[in-house]
Amino acid sequence: MTAPAALLDRSPASGGCAESPVLRERGQREVFCGLTGIVWLHRKMQDAFFLVVGSRTCAHLIQSAAGVMIFAEPRFGTAIMEEKDLAGLTDANEELDRVVGRLLERRPDIKLLFLVGSCPSEVIKLDLARAAGRLNDIHAPHTRVLNYSGSGIETTFTQGEDACLAALVPQMPTLSAADPARLLIVGALPDVVEDQFRRLFAQMGIQHVDALPARRIEDLPGVGPNTRFLMAQPFLGDTARALEDRGAQRLEALFPFGAEGTTDWLHSAAKAFGVDEMLFRSVVAPGRERAARALERFRPALDGKSIFFFPDSQLEIPLARFLSRELGMVPLEVGTPYLHRPHLSRELPLLPSATVLSEGQDVDRQLDRCRAVRPDLSVCGLGLANPLEMEGLTTKWSIELVFSPVHGFDQAADLAELFARPMNRKGRLSPSIRGAA
């Protein structure tokens, strides 16, 4: 376990993977599309509705991923494009206007409507940006209408959230240099996790704390030159760039996974807002110690075990750092769809120098490398998990790491358990274990 003093040391580490070469892969990909982000975004944004303009396949994907009961009233739906739309036999814009009108008449509680592009809508060049502008003129100010792309063409599934939040940035009110400094948490977090972070910041004396996305559109925060923002997710490159274009300043930090990452993330804000060091230590000490003690329960299952990350969510590098430094795992290869070095500048030096870094995907080659090293645990998408399990390799579904509350001190043990669970399952199913019993 990393010593508490080391957890507060923010000086750059030497070595690691900071200067390591990156194996760039360009081939067949195995990922969900950006529409999947609706599954967690619709739960976070309480007065928003996500209308996918796509096919029946799009509708089945979202309904299956969300697991919505048939009697529920979710905050998402699909405007299904029929063959006549794809063939250009009808005016898709007229049909879309009609669907939106019926939706808003039936659901007057919707204050923010997203038109979400899909592979089919992009293939036929349906201009949803223009459609959103036209519909916004009709339905605003009661309902704002925005658009973003959730298409799976050349993207990975977490980019759906990035595109959604980037579409919100132009809607944020403009703050001036005369406004007080504000801290902005960027990335959709479960409400309970966001509230935990807000309490910690309040105890440090940082009072002006906002979140993007806000839970309601009327609470959408402002942005300006006195805005400092912390990224809660490493896959928000477009959103970060849009905020910086509005004058906000990104705070460099580890991502808040585990005791070390969460301490560093909070410390970055504390330093930016002039929080006394002793006050900071006293505020974070209880949570940090709870997390450290809770993680110790999982070390026997994970310490010394090797792990291989297939590229999927862009969480791979921060998670590999957490598993290596706090649980003793050995990351053999860490693949990520996109490697954004400026946003990972604190993470890369903390990875073991022997770790192979890969960016992008060529699934056949990565499968060959995984089979060659036979890791104790492989983190991969659903499409690869069953074939690898059939070959005797233990797997972890990467999408579960995005759907679960894993940020912060109080979720550190839950995050560790997600990796320990398949290892424990393998132990229980092992013939030698059964024979000993």
**Total count of strands:** 14
**Broad shape:** globular
Class computed from helices, strands and strand pairing = alpha/beta
Rg for CA atoms: 23 Å
The tally of helices reads 19
The major beta sheet can be summarized as: 6 strands, parallel
Proportion of β residues? 15-25%
Strand order of the largest sheet: 1-12-11-10-13-14
> Which residues form runs of ≥5 with pLDDT under 50?
1-13, 432-437
Assign a percent range to the helix content. Answer: 40-55%
Question: How would you sum up this structure, described in words?
Answer:
- The structure is a single chain.
- The chain contains 19 helices and 14 strands.
- Strand 2 (48-54), helix 3 (56-66) and strand 3 (76-80) form a beta-alpha-beta unit.
- The strands form three sheets. A six-stranded parallel sheet has the order 1-12-11-10-13-14, sandwiched between helices.
- Mean pLDDT is 90; it is low at 1-13 and 432-437.
- The longest helix has 20 residues, at 277-296.
- The protein has 437 residues and is an alpha/beta fold.
- Helix 11 runs antiparallel to helix 12.
Task: Describe the protein's topology.
Layout: H1 4-7, E1 22-26, H2 38-44, E2 48-54, H3 56-66, E3 76-80, H4 83-86, H5 92-106, E4 112-117, H6 119-123, H7 128-139, E5 144-149, H8 159-168, E6 182-186, H9 191-204, E7 209-212, E8 227-231, H10 237-245, E9 249-250, H11 258-272, H12 277-296, H13 299-302, E10 306-309, H14 316-327, E11 330-336, E12 356-361, H15 363-373, E13 377-380, H16 382-390, E14 395-397, H17 399-403, H18 412-429, H19 431-436
Parallel strand pairs: 1-12, 2-3, 2-4, 4-5, 6-7, 6-8, 8-9, 10-11, 10-13, 11-12, 13-14
Helix pairs in contact: 8-10, 11-12
